[in-house]
Amino acid sequence: MTTLVIGGAGYIGSHVVRLLLTKGEKVVVVDSLSTGIEERTAGAELVELDVTAPDASEKLAFQLRAAGADSVIHFAAHKQVGESVEKPEMYWHDNIGGLANVLAACASAEVRDVVFSSSAAVYGVPDVDLVTEELTPQPINPYGATKYVGEWMLADAERAHGLRTVALRYFNVAGAGWPELADTAVMNLVPIVLDRLEQGKDPVVFGDDYDTPDGTCIRDYVHVLDLAEAHVAALDYLRGEERPHRVFNVGTGTGSSVLEVLDAIGRARGVELTPEIGPRRAGDPARLVCSATRIEEALGWTGTHDLDDIVRSAVEARRGAGRP
Ligand SMILES: NC(=O)c1ccc[n+]([C@@H]2O[C@H](COP(=O)([O-])OP(=O)(O)OC[C@H]3O[C@@H](n4cnc5c(N)ncnc54)[C@H](O)[C@@H]3O)[C@@H](O)[C@H]2O)c1
């Protein structure tokens, strides 16, 4: 089987590429290298291409035919909530326009199976204990909106062109499956805290007066290696006959508070952390934890790594890179 992985030089994409290669699949990576790193794609063919370029659809279709690809995984997107609020046009143009080019290329090259990176950001600030896929998404920022619209586009492409698609709504992704594939961006809690500690600063907690047991926000952390396995499971699902769902949450169903994450980081580094308490950030729900029942039942996938595994892998990857 041959899979074209768009955005495969990025943090999550490169884990999926590595996993597919270890399972003996042929992989071609398409990436603009805007945030991606070429070395992460070792073992796969790399085609440098911006999927938002005017001629991208034709070029992608060419690459799909040349590779003999039978599936596509599409990771390439901007992913910063704050930036999306400041530059919504860029998010609509690139996240939606890029996906439109990918789907048109798949239709033209008759590649049927597509897996799309969606996000828990589609849900906005749901007031429920466990978020199920039945909940109507209500994104509260352009980033989340582009992911939700992306899911509609998949459904349209299924109807129009006979594609078979899966959207995976990732919850909080962290950790490293291989040290050299670790997250180099400083946007999520674990890398943000590790970066502060590296600078000799205390971590900052944004709000400790939420309606949660310890007052800090609760999220559902999923190890990037487990997430990579979910993509492999999604490809298997698309290649099979039965396919009752096209949208899946990817999380563990277990919530961890910011203070619990800080404790885990302290354990992994053998130190006790003393966080500063800052003000709440706009748009942060108190709790965002998924029900992972659908993906377990339909794809046979469950997360196997707990918070300590996730944090330890991130800390060890940094140490392996010679950072404290
Ligand atoms: N990291 C998270 O916590 C998280 C959570 C939910 C959803 N997601 C989604 O998962 C996907 C991957 O995220 P990531 O954390 O690996 O990000 P990343 O920035 O590390 O990877 C994105 C990759 O896509 C490439 N890319 C970007 N624009 C491109 C374009 N126009 N043409 C070709 N390649 C392009 C980048 O060079 C990079 O290699 C994104 O769609 C993101 O929205 C990520």
From TrEMBL:
<keyword id="KW-0119">Carbohydrate metabolism</keyword>
<dbReference type="GO" id="GO:0003978">
    <property type="term" value="F:UDP-glucose 4-epimerase activity"/>
</dbReference>
<comment type="pathway">
    <text>Carbohydrate metabolism; galactose metabolism.</text>
</comment>
<keyword id="KW-0520">NAD</keyword>
<dbReference type="Pfam" id="PF01370">
    <property type="entry name" value="Epimerase"/>
</dbReference>
<dbReference type="InterPro" id="IPR001509">
    <property type="entry name" value="Epimerase_deHydtase"/>
</dbReference>
<comment type="similarity">
    <text>Belongs to the NAD(P)-dependent epimerase/dehydratase family.</text>
</comment>
<protein>
    <recommendedName>
        <fullName>UDP-glucose 4-epimerase</fullName>
        <ecNumber>5.1.3.2</ecNumber>
    </recommendedName>
</protein>
<dbReference type="InterPro" id="IPR005886">
    <property type="entry name" value="UDP_G4E"/>
</dbReference>
<feature type="domain" description="NAD-dependent epimerase/dehydratase">
    <location>
        <begin position="4"/>
        <end position="251"/>
    </location>
</feature>
<keyword id="KW-0413">Isomerase</keyword>
<dbReference type="InterPro" id="IPR036291">
    <property type="entry name" value="NAD(P)-bd_dom_sf"/>
</dbReference>
